[in-house]
Amino acid sequence: MPISPPPLRPGDQVALVGTARKVTAEEMAPAVDILTRWGLRVVLGESITAAHHQFAGSDELRRRDLQQQLDAPDIRAILCARGGYGTTRIIDQLDFSGFAQHPKWVAGFSDITTLNCHLLKLGYESIHGVMAFIFNQAGGEASLESLRRALFGEPISYAVPAHPLNRPGSATGELIGGNLTLLQNLTGTASDCPTDGRILFLEDVAEYLLSIDRMMVHLDRTGKLRNLAGLVVGHFTDPQDNAVPFGQTPDEIIATYAAKYQFPVAYGFPVGHEPQNMALICGRPARLTVTAAGTELSYL
């Protein structure tokens, strides 16, 4: 079972780090204010004020900053500043031996799926949740509160309305997942995680319907769907189409491949690139229950 880092306590020190797209200290100010109100002390990593084209500094700078926070025993959590692209460029150059001596929460989503999966492969839980860049987004209050509860070790469970494509059933297993594009991209790498017996959750943004289908084909052909305990489908925000329509929605595409198997499937889960992006603890054993009345997800 994956190791769970210690929950945060008031007075703990947390770091904001940019592993992907660049941000500014001004853009981080709302997150710093919120974290301070949570009773935490905030450290801005070197990457927060750095820029190299679209990245939060060069690969070496971002790697060095993240490595420093991974190693520092007084940093109790690392909150990723923003997604975009860039985490996969530095993941293989990181050393997690210091982190293993003092495990800490790492939180983020989208491009940070790379870190979530890599940590799970190493045997540690992490949080798929709201990033600092959008801490103050309109309509995101419940998502932010779910992140706080996850960080501070408070109980979390979710109830979601029924969806017409849902497949009823009950399953238990460790949560794994995140951004579909990243999960497909990580296949065969040192960050690739087994899905057998686990509950997989998926989300994505601005992807072509054809690409979503192609990625689902890839997941299926590589055996990622075959032995799942359950499947949770989140937001597929702003899907794109070609001049000749693909003919299916993202949910319908996923249902095509899920139909080959018997595990329970829940659609419409509030996770992904929208204000409703509830925190999910990657690696945490959970129970998924899908009935005609809706979906419930709780931790064991």
From TrEMBL:
One of its GO terms (biological process) is proteolysis. Keywords: Carboxypeptidase, Hydrolase, Protease, Serine protease. InterPro entries: Carboxypeptidase_A_C_sf, Class_I_gatase-like, LdcA_N, Peptidase_S66_N, Peptidase_S66C, S66_fam. Residues 14-129 form the LD-carboxypeptidase N-terminal domain. The keyword Plastid does not apply. Residues 172-288 form the LD-carboxypeptidase C-terminal domain. It comes from the Bacteria. The keyword Hydrolase applies. The active site is at residues 110, 203, 273. GO terms for molecular function: carboxypeptidase activity; serine-type peptidase activity. PANTHER family: MURAMOYLTETRAPEPTIDE CARBOXYPEPTIDASE, MUREIN TETRAPEPTIDE CARBOXYPEPTIDASE. Belongs to the peptidase S66 family. This is LD-carboxypeptidase. It comes from Hymenobacter aquaticus.
